[in-house]
Design a protein that fits this description.
This protein is of the alpha+beta class. Helices cover 36% and strands 27% of the residues. It has a single domain, classed as Histidine kinase-like ATPase, C-terminal domain (Heat Shock Protein 90), CATH 3.30.565.
Length: 152
């Protein structure tokens, strides 16, 4: 199967669309029905993290999603282009509110620091394999599950 690519504006509403597309492509790729909820949830978590980073640091840039079925593996890659999100001013492992924003005047939770590893732990618990690449250009989360012809 060829790669399916999707790019979308960094809006939370588009995360649902990404989940639906990923689930449909996974089903067509032969991912077992019992794993489809895991695919949907992991893709949703990875896309939500990317959308949050884009909204904070580069709202005009799209989030990218790539779905591929190759050699008995269904692979999903979510890519953001917001390097500052991965290297937030709060130090390693923290996601800070928009630089210069007043947490008191922000929506609830906007100024709170959330452990960056929390979403990654969820993704790692759902996907069969997970690879995270952070570069100056952004962050890529690659997840995979067995598909038709593969074994878990």
């Amino acid at each position: 199967m060829a790669t399916v690519e999707l790019s979308f504006t960094a809006l939370p509403a588009h995360v649902r669309t990404a989940r639906l597309v990923a689930t449909a492509v996974a089903r067509r790729s032969g991912v077992d029905e019992s794993l489809l909820d895991e695919v949907r949830l992991a893709v949703g978590e990875a896309c939500s993290r990317a959308v949050e980073g884009h909204q904070l640091y580069c709202p005009a840039e799209p989030v990218r999603l790539s779905l591929t079925d190759l050699a008995g593996r269904f692979e999903v890659e979510v890519t953001d282009t917001c390097a500052p999100f991965a290297r937030s001013p709060g130090g390693a492992g923290a996601v800070a509110a928009r630089p210069g924003a007043d947490p008191a005047g922000s929506p609830p939770g906007a100024g709170a620091r959330v452990p960056a590893g929390l979403g990654i732990a969820v993704i790692e618990g759902l996907a069969d394999e997970v690879q995270i690449s952070e570069t100056a250009a952004g962050t890529s989360i690659r997840m995979s599950w067995p598909s038709a012809g593969g074994s878990r």
